[in-house]
Design brief:
Elements (H helix, E strand, L loop, with lengths): L5 H4 L9 H7 L2 H4 L3 H17 L5 H19 L12 H13 L12 H36 L5 E6 L2 E7 H26 L1 E2 L15 H8 L3 E2 L3 H6 L2 H28 L6 E2 L18 H24 L14 H21 L4 E2 L1 H10 L4 H10 L4 H18 L8 H5 L9 H5 L1 H6 L9 H14 L2
Parallel strand pairs: 3-4
Antiparallel strand pairs: 1-2, 5-6
Helix pairs in contact: 4-5, 4-7, 4-9, 5-6, 7-8, 7-13, 7-20, 8-11, 8-20, 11-12, 11-13, 12-13, 15-16
The structure holds arginine.
Arginine (ARG) binds next to helix 7.
Length: about 450
């Protein structure tokens, strides 16, 4: 009966596990993804057991060698995963014992699968966090590079999706950049709480062996140790935080997606997305569909769903470990896969967006985007802002009636609304004038955005 989980805990049982229950309770099909981190944790644990004299140095070494052998088998694709062995932990331990004999059975001294699995997930998520941070940086760099080329490319800025004021394409991209900087900060912050070691909590109460948790933590690169054994085995806050950070990040990507999709439509026609990121229609020959942003927008739903799953999973759980926790892995893995894929796709696609500067400019000229500039002009000449607002409103109404932009009205036409208006008004009615006038931290003036890009590079370095 060596190939059955019950050999690891079956002493008090009088009948075999129901075969459906065995399959129902098994997690190996998905938690085998934690194999490398499980082995990493076990090697550190065995090292500590030897160093503390809990097992002999020879036994410790034999276990470590055996674990490395198991690892190579997995790497070579030779390892046979068995559902009867329930989960990744027992599959690996069972193979270890098959390889090195009874000494393998000493590995689990002073440890439980409860603190083992919590440790595995943290090691795994720490690595995934680092990969996500690298992908975020790649995307941020791509945005900065693209922005750098477009501080003078003018487009309409929107509120309520109605033309509001002229901005540069670079300024818009830098707004996305800011979202992504906050995302990085959140993952960096969460990493500190992921990077705490549960090992040593054992089943829930700690262990009777003279373990050295500080040593194991150091071997595994943990920056701290879970300070309460009950909390150590049951805490999944770090996973929820990770999924929450991922959800906010996906929400950002979905907003970017939505804009790219709009911009790609024939009605906006603001950007060209290279063909390699799009697909066609099997019926409509003219179609070029923005599949990548559409899918990222759609995949955001999965990540939100996983966050809700994790929150609901932990809700009302009594201390300490409960089998419920086994359900944490699939949503978490799905968050990692979905987020990673979305970041790769965006990192590839975004720097390759080609803005259609002429179309953007024409669109900006259409929507009375410099109306606020005219009001500001009048205020600077002494008119209170509310009155200026009224004057410009009437000028816009004339423009609408005539079907022309403010800059296309003659000086005489403009002066009928206020004699404060002089020929210098046309400087502030141009798109360039409007942009240049907003030259302060966070403003859309090319000079301000250039500085923001430069500083952006330092902020992510
Ligand atoms: N497969 C389990 C999980 O993912 C490992 C821990 C099981 N512990 C237990 N006492 N049944 O949570």
């Amino acid at each position: 009966m060596t190939d059955n989980a019950s050999t690891m805990w079956g002493g008090r049982f009088s009948e075999a596990t129901d075969s459906f229950v065995q399959a129902f309770t098994a997690s190996v099909n998905f938690d085998k993804r934690l194999a490398y981190h499980d082995i990493q944790g076990s090697i550190a644990h065995a090292t500590m057991l030897g160093a503390c004299g809990i097992i002999t140095d020879d036994d410790s070494q034999a276990i470590i060698d055996g674990l490395n052998q198991v690892k190579s088998e997995i790497e070579r694709g030779e390892f046979v995963w068995k559902i009867e062995l329930e989960d990744v932990h027992m599959n690996i331990e069972s193979r270890l014992t098959a390889l090195i004999g009874d000494v393998g059975k000493k590995l689990h001294t002073g440890r439980s699968r409860n603190d083992q699995v919590a440790t595995d997930i943290r090691l795994y998520l720490r690595d995934e966090t680092d990969k996500i941070l690298a992908l975020l940086k790649r995307l941020q760099t791509g945005l900065l590079d693209l922005a750098d080329k477009h501080t003078d490319t003018i487009m309409p800025g929107f509120t309520h999706l109605q033309t509001a004021q002229p901005i540069s394409f670079a300024h818009h991209l830098m707004a996305w950049f800011e979202m992504l900087v906050r995302d990085s900060q959140r993952f960096i912050d969460t990493r500190h709480r992921i990077n705490q070691m549960p090992l040593g909590s054992a089943a829930l109460a700690g262990t009777t062996y003279p373990i050295d948790r500080a040593m194991t933590a150091e071997l595994l690169g943990f920056e701290g140790i879970c300070q309460n054994s009950l909390d150590g085995v049951s805490d999944r806050d770090f996973a929820i935080e990770f999924a929450s950070n991922a959800s906010i990040l996906m929400m950002h990507l979905s907003r970017m997606s939505e804009e790219i999709i709009l911009w790609m439509s024939a009605q906006f026609d603001f950007v060209q997305v290279p063909d390699r990121f799009c697909t066609g229609s099997s019926i409509m020959p003219q179609k070029k569909n923005p599949d990548v942003p559409e899918l990222v927008r759609g995949k955001t739903a999965r990540v939100f769903g996983s966050l809700t799953t994790l929150l609901t999973l932990m809700k009302s759980q009594p201390l300490a470990y409960n089998k419920d926790n086994q359900e944490d892995k699939e949503p978490l893995f799905d968050v990692v896969d979905t987020l990673t894929g979305s970041l790769i796709a965006f990192g590839d696609m975004l720097p390759n967006l080609v803005p259609k500067a002429d179309n953007m400019r024409q669109a900006t000229l259409k929507g009375y985007a410099t109306a606020t500039d005219l009001a500001d002009y009048l205020v600077k000449k002494g008119l209170p802002f509310r009155d200026a607002h009224e004057v410009v409103g009437r000028a816009v109404a004339l423009g609408v009636a005539k079907g022309v932009d403010l800059a296309q009205l003659s000086l005489d036409e403009l002066r009928q609304f206020s004699d404060l208006i002089d020929s210098d008004v046309f400087d502030c009615l141009t798109l360039e004038g409007s942009l240049n006038a907003r030259n302060h931290i966070g403003g859309t003036a090319p000079q301000a955005v250039k500085l923001a890009i430069e500083q952006g590079r330092e902020r992510i370095s």
